[in-house]
Fold:
Amino acid sequence: MVNFGNDWDEILKGEFQKDYYIELRKKLINEYKTQQIFPDMYDIFNAMKLTAYNDVKCVIIGQDPYHNIGQAHGLSFSVRKGTVPPPSLVNIFKEIKDDVGVDNLGKHGELTKWAENGVLLLNSVLTVRANQARSHHGLGWETFTTDVIKILNEREKPMVFMLWGGDAKAKQKFITNPNHLVLKSAHPSPLSAYNGFFGCKHFSQANEFLKAHGIGEIDWSID
Structure:
């Protein structure tokens, strides 16, 4: 049983008893024994360990974890300090600088501070084989993260969903509660950032929405 140490423990208690998750867990146990899988098994659920359900202000949905050594640690788009920020994250930082004037460029790529301040950094798929992008798609994680999105959608307290790229936008159909704000754009990858991510102003829009609903704005800086 996963221990989140917050309100997710009770909320997701039944999820881990479902047949699909039991099968997913069996597959993961085998793969972690026989292959190099990212992130470390103790980091898989860091997004929800760091951001309690009731504290979520914004959900940023990624694809799958980074697949190179030393990158993934359970938060979408984030890498540990000491690891060079990947191109997609650099583009996120560029948009933040242009949008809200916060300059994270040239620092590091660890987004733990965001997570601790209410940004749920959730990938659609939570694990990946080393050097094999999208290698755990179809393993069962999509069902888990869709159920998490549905649970968040049901919450009355407003939040913002940032959907960047096709994988994230596929979750939009599960976000039906008019209390929430859905922001969509191209993915921040260098391959697509100029097709609508740059200039999307999602970070200022999120804070304007939160402020209008009496919720504390997000500090988009990193330490």
